[in-house]
């Protein structure tokens, strides 16, 4: 009788260990989730850098009509062959 009880307890402990390792919310799920979080944080950092660059471009475009003209001419291919477009800093400030 004691041997059966001992074997049943060992089997129960083994089942709990398997549940802890491979079950829903177990160690394997935890490792997978940590990897997904690290990948998402890296992706978020890249998106944050891209957004900062866009904010700087927008600030530059809002600051001067010359920069708007230069960007429009460059994007619409309105620069003549051999022409060099140079923006000088505004001396009025």
Topology:
Blueprint: H1 2-22, H2 27-63, H3 65-75
Helix pairs in contact: 2-3
Could you list some keywords that capture this structure?
mainly alpha, 93 residues, 3 helices
Give the total of domains.
1
Q: Hey, roughly how much beta strand do the residues contain?
A: under 5%
In whole angstroms, the N-to-C terminal distance is 95 Å
How many E strands? 0
What helical percentage do the residues reach? over 70%
The helix/strand series, from N terminus to C terminus, equals: HHH
Overall spatial form: rod-shaped
Structural class by SSE content? mainly alpha
Whole-number radius of gyration?
32 Å
User: pLDDT average, as an integer?
Assistant: 84
**What is the count of helical runs?**
3
Detail the poorly predicted runs: none
Largest sheet: none
Structure report:
The protein is an all-alpha fold and 93 residues long. It has one domain. 74% of the residues lie in helices and 0% in strands. It contains three helices and no strands. Helix 2 crosses helix 3. It is rod-shaped, with a radius of gyration of 32 Å.
Short overview:
By secondary structure, the protein is mainly α. The protein has helices at 2-22, 27-63, 65-75.
